Amino acid sequence: MEWPVATERGTADELARTLREAILRLNRRVRQTRAVGDLTFSQLSALTSLQLHGALTPRELADVERVQPPTMTKIVGKLEDRGLVARTPHPTDGRQVILAPTEQGRTMYAQFEQVRNEWLAEQLAALSPDERDVLARAAQIMQQVAQA
């Protein structure tokens, strides 16, 4: 499929719709792969953020996840109840705590990563080297857009 160059607003809007649809479908397909435990998508996302960004305060984690602090409090509570995340006192601010994955949380994250990557890696292996190069570049751009 040939994609239009996004030089006009209409083309950018069309590309945005097409890209959003592709992301949603791919995300749904990856999420349909074998589940690891019974964590919700939000819980897995928070655990992933802690694994990738390191220890964070609840507020920092809410900011990374782009949710309100009360929502993150509920998510973290569920992760703590499962023994996947631990709170420790903040080293310089006695009013704050630091959240970090426990050993069990790191293990759960590793299992989750392996499971969700297996299916996608199989699909990518079926593509041509040129198609994989295009996707690699697109992934970099999508990361930039997601962090904007």
Note down, in words, how this protein is organized.
The protein is built from 6 helices and 2 strands, in the order ααααββαα. The chain has one domain: Orthogonal Bundle (Arc Repressor Mutant, subunit A), CATH 1.10.10. The chain has a two-stranded antiparallel ribbon. The protein is mostly helical and 148 residues long. The chain is 67% helix and 7% strand. It has helices spanning 9-31, 41-53, 58-65, 69-81, 103-125, 129-147; strands at 85-89, 97-101. Helix 2 (41-53) packs across helix 3 (58-65) and helix 2 packs across helix 4. A hairpin with a 7-residue loop joins strand 1 (85-89) and strand 2.
Output mean pLDDT: 89
CATH superfamily: Winged helix-like DNA-binding domain superfamily/Winged helix DNA-binding domain
Classified by CATH, the class is: Mainly Alpha
Q: Secondary-structure element order, as H and E?
A: HHHHEEHH
Number of strands: 2
Range of strand content: 5-15%
CATH topology term: Arc Repressor Mutant, subunit A
Tell the overall outline: globular
GO molecular function, one term: DNA-binding transcription factor activity
Keywords: DNA-binding, Transcription, Transcription regulation
Protein name: MarR family transcriptional regulator
Organism: Paractinoplanes ferrugineus
